[in-house]
Amino acid sequence: MNESVEIRRAEVADAEAGALCHLTCWREAYAGIVEPALLLERTSDLVRRTERWAAALADGVVRWIAVNPDPAAPVEDRVIGFSAPGPARDEDSPVQLELYAIYVRQSWWGTGLGARLLDVAIGTQPACLWVLEANGRARAFYRRHGFVEDGSRVDEPFFDVPEIRMIRPHGVSAAPL
């Protein structure tokens, strides 16, 4: 199923579809984790999220998108996942690469698409990431790909929930699909 999904670097023209995917993935992944009214509020401004995507892409920020294989998919279903790597932002990070984001639409969970997006973003390189502490599904995914909790914890202000840092200190082979 996921082999037919094209993964490519996002372009400015993908900003609206990418932003729609981003907001929808937050709703799907954080339901039951983030207070419902806050989640709705934080995922309702498509114009602002599209502007942020467009500006980042225009500035050369790398975002990999998974494109729905159905050519007739409406714009809200055109991008079904994305990942975003970059330099580690934490001064105390033991690695130089960070996975800023990786999301897959709920209907694609369990298909291996997340592993493909992880692979294109960071490969087998050592890396770090931040994940909502209560997001057990995501933490299990990262553990399967060699990440471990390093004890760092912060209060994430956008969704008002705790986040923890996970590190993959050594390059590893991708987990089997």
Automatic annotation (TrEMBL):
The alphabetized UniProt keywords are: Acyltransferase, Transferase
RNA-binding: is it a keyword of this entry? no
- Alphabetized GO MF terms: acyltransferase activity, transferring groups other than amino-acyl groups
Start and end residues of each N-acetyltransferase domain: 5-171
- In Swiss-Prot or TrEMBL terms, this protein is called L-amino acid N-acyltransferase YncA
* Origin species: Kribbella caucasensis
